[in-house]
Amino acid sequence: MMEKNDVILVNVTEEIVRGLVGFMLRGPEYQAFCNCYICETDVIALTLNALPAKYVSNPRMRDAAFKELNTPANIDMINREIIHAIYIVARQPKHTTV
Q1: Per-residue pLDDT tens over the stretch 10-20
Q2: Residue 11 in 3-state DSSP?
Q3: I need a labelling partner for 27 at 20 to 30 A (CA). Which of 33, 37, 39, 49 fits?
Q4: At CB < 8 A and 24+ separation, what contacts does 19-28 make?
């Protein structure tokens, strides 16, 4: 029987998106894009709003969901949404430039 401390609530889609956004924004294609915390978080939020969430409640389910979502076709779809979000945030960043 699972104890209360064994139960988690994780959006596996969010884990994947956070990793991909971080990777993309630090890569050569987006060197001119502001990768401050606010802009990066805005890109993640916009991307997640465009994708279906995949919540799980324990580590074993998390691993299975990650395998299910980590396919070339799904990663391509996520990357398209990230690129779309990057262009939106780049046009209207929410941070103030110092």
Answers
A1: 999 999 999 99
A2: strand
A3: 49
A4: 20/75, 20/78, 20/79, 20/82, 21/47, 21/82, 24/79, 24/82, 24/83, 24/86, 25/86
Q: pTM for the complete prediction?
A: 0.87
Residue 55: its H or E element: strand 55-56
Best CA proximity match to 86, nearest among 53, 19, 52, 41: 41
- What are the residue ranges of helices labelled H in the chain? 12-25, 37-50, 59-69, 72-91
Amino acid letter for position 61:
M
Name the DSSP letter for residue 37: H
Tokens for 89? Answer: 């945030």
3-class DSSP assignment, residue 10:
strand
